[in-house]
Known about the structure:
- This protein is α/β, with parallel strands linked by helices.
- Helix 3 crosses helix 4 (179-189).
- 19% of the residues lie in helices and 28% in strands.
- The protein has an eight-stranded mixed β-sheet with strand order 6-5-4-3-2-1-16-17, covered by helices on one side. Strands 7-8-11-12-13-14-15 form a seven-stranded mixed β-sheet, with helices on one face.
- It has one domain (2-239): Metallo-beta-lactamase, Chain A (4-Layer Sandwich), CATH 3.60.15.
Amino acid sequence: MELTWHGHSTWHVSVDDTSLLIDPFFDNPFTSVDPADLSPDYVLLTHGHADHVGDVGAFTDATIVGTPELVGWVADEHGADDTVGMNLGGTVECGSAYVTMHRADHTNGIGTDYEYSAGMPAGYVIGDTVPTQEGDEDAFAFYHAGDTGLMSEMRDVIGPFLEPDAAALPVGDHFTMGPAQAAIAADWLDVDHVFPMHYDTFPPIEIDVGDVEREVAATGSDAEVHVLDGDGSFAFERPYAEE
């Protein structure tokens, strides 16, 4: 599995021969990518705020995945023909990847005045095998938390049952968790790798990203914090060694 961060909450995830783009928003200071140069197989949307769906119209050739309300809006507004409406707790097979939707603690309006509801905001656990209660040492899963505050489901459900190995967590504070609560989230999730996201895009979410590593260490977690440069990638190969 290879992860590429295009700034803010925009991630490109490759699972074998399947490519997934999460929350396409390229109007941010960390990326130089032109959306027209990307051709993902699937686009996953966590919620309807403009800084998460701003460039979804460039990817209507892909399969759009999200809540029924949100993908319905993409179909109506942008003419997307291939959509998958799913909901919290569900798992769908997306090519070589298995995508499980889980709740996020946030708001979820669409449009300048948030005149439309997009249902519950979400995060996704993306794995290379279907999630089961039987452990699989060869399985690998990446959790994109979406925009969220700290929530006990990370400790009680996502960590012990969906078992992500790596997590992209919002750390910019103000609209989501800040470094201290994101560090608690990493500890509760029991992940080995943490990728900060959703920071330094706008003035309200400017932080010292070094605080994330310090806060994670303060929890006693052994998780490694990876602060990627914009458009930077990180690859995992069984048994999850860096490439």
